Amino acid sequence: MNLKTKITTGFLAMLLLVLSIGGYAYYSLRQLDRSSRDVLKANLYSIELGQRMLRSLDQLARQPLADTAGTAAFAAALAEEARNVTEPGEQQVVDDLRRLTQQLRQHQQQARRAVAAGQTSPLGIEAEPYELGGLTYQMMALNTDALNRKTEAANQRADQANRNLLLFATLAVLLGLALVASVPEAAVQPLRKLTAALDHATERNFSASIPQESHDEFGQVARAFNRMLGQLREYRTSTAAELITERNRAASIVNTLDEGLLLLDENRTILLANPVLCELLGLPAEKLLGRPAATVRLENDLFQAMLRPLDAPNREAAVAEAPLLHISQRGEEAFYQLAVQDLVSFNEATEKTEFVGHILTLRNVSDFKKLDQVKSNFLATVSHELKTPLSSINLNTKLLQDERLPADERQRITGYIRQETQRLQRMVAELLDVSRLDAGAGIQLDVQPTNLADVVSFATATVQPQLHDKQLRLEFHQPTRLPEVRADVEKTTWVLINLLANAIRYSPVGAALTVRVAVAGAFVRVSVQDHGPGIAPEHHDKIFQRFAQLPDKTGYRGGSGLGLSIAREFIATQGGRLWVESELGSGSTFSFTLPVVGA
């Protein structure tokens, strides 16, 4: 048996045992999970319904004849319980509850008719809520006892699973110890023989081959090593043309690097500078190769900055702390990071490793710098956006604590707190949507035939307080007959509210906002038009990018820079399109389309 078969057999045995343990653990967890789900559905939910029924009875006990809302709430919870009967005797209790509930409703109706006729309401039915309460407690007791029994059974199954898993784990440990004792020895013993043979071949005598004593993997290594010795003998006799070819190939690789590369010898004489570095320095290769670095650094500031870490007492710390090099390249800002490595070579004559020079590289990190700037801007914006509503909520909360404040003023302040809270919720929801998209979770849609008129009606009603605060007029245009579209109602409404909120934010006081809905072929188009400052054409695509913010004339930077990006994701996933039509000084029109049902 060769070494591969031995090792494979051992690993297969371990894998089989691990799979067995994993399979049994998975099966046990599934059983426990199924038991817990059954308990939650069959018993715990019935107990929750019983608590709701008791709360309704508490309310009903105070006004047994007049409180129809309490009766309705009790009946609704009882209807849910009737669909969740799982225990023996529970159905009889539910039937009794239904009968008493029906009697209570009849008595309430009689009481209302008596009051309407000027008669005295009937007496003697105040006990019915208490009878309902007793039956409710009986139903809850049935489910509580069942819950305790099922929990105990689940605990017993869990204990048994733990004992079985412990047994499997013990077997795995014993098998592992057996493999540790046998497999390494089977591998190391032939290696000792191979090491002894290699010592004879390291005397620079490429004709001393390794004897082949076996046909297993180590025999294959010996044959491969002997072939390598033959190739080394051929390399020693290589022609000058072959060496030149290899040198040219290496030079081609260096010249095509996208990083600036500088090679210095042990005396800091320039041996190589690739085209990228020459372009960054603004010097041709002829003015660099063969010259001392100390001379060139006096003529070029960038070269001086590259060599500065070499003169530091602690070069590694100096390179790590060195700022990014800011270079203007073809009219654009670019940032480069410096890296320095020592070159060492083994001297066969002295049999020592010797220092032979330095390699300095400049790596373009402009994209990373931009991403870092975007992150900083985003954090600053979110901090500002969170601070403003929190400060407003804090101030308004302090005002509400003043008992002398009139009721209408309290209502107005409460409205402000609600608006700021909704603003915070919207920002958190945007961040959660982005985190789900970045994590690859995608967008979960509930696409169904939808009437966009209802979506528009709900969205415009939602932003009415904001319209009132800025004294804006909302104009609405749509055809009398509008076909249904395939859309997710919740996400489409979110998009429209976001567009309306942006339009309100940038509209001057007293201006008009226009919402238009129209059929456009196989799509329905919804547009929101404002009379704000407008957006330059070169920024039309940028505003739909994440964290994008365009300062207006007053320096206002808007929200988190996520709303339009998420809105476009929502619309595109539903098969539509979101875009903007705008010019500076002429307002903006944001539009999106959704496919018509059956188109």
The overall pLDDT, averaged over residues, is: 78
The helix content, as a percent range, equals 55-70%
N-to-C span:
68 Å
Low-confidence stretches: 553-558
SS-derived structural category: alpha+beta
Radius of gyration: 40 Å
Helix and strand pattern: HHHHHHEEHHHHEEEHHEHHEEHEEHEE
Major sheet details: 5 strands, antiparallel
Number of strands: 12
Keywords:
alpha+beta, five-stranded antiparallel β-sheet, 16 helices, histidine kinase, transferase
Task: Compose a concise summary of this entry.
This protein has helices at 3-62, 68-82, 90-116, 127-201, 217-236, 240-255, 275-281, 293-296, 301-307, 315-321, 366-400, 407-438, 452-462, 464-469, 489-506, 563-573, and strands at 260-265, 270-273, 325-329, 332-347, 352-364, 448-450, 473-477, 485-487, 512-520, 523-529, 577-582, 588-595.
Give structural notes:
Residues 246-291 form the PAS domain. The protein is an alpha+beta fold and 599 residues long. Helices cover 59% and strands 14% of the residues. The chain has a five-stranded antiparallel sheet with strand order 2-1-5-4-3. Strands 7-9-10-12-11 form a five-stranded mixed sheet. Helix 1 (3-62) runs antiparallel to helix 4, helix 2 (68-82) packs antiparallel against helix 3 and helix 15 (489-506) packs antiparallel against helix 16. It is flat and about 125 Å long. It starts with a helix and ends with a strand. The model is unreliable at 553-558 (pLDDT under 50).
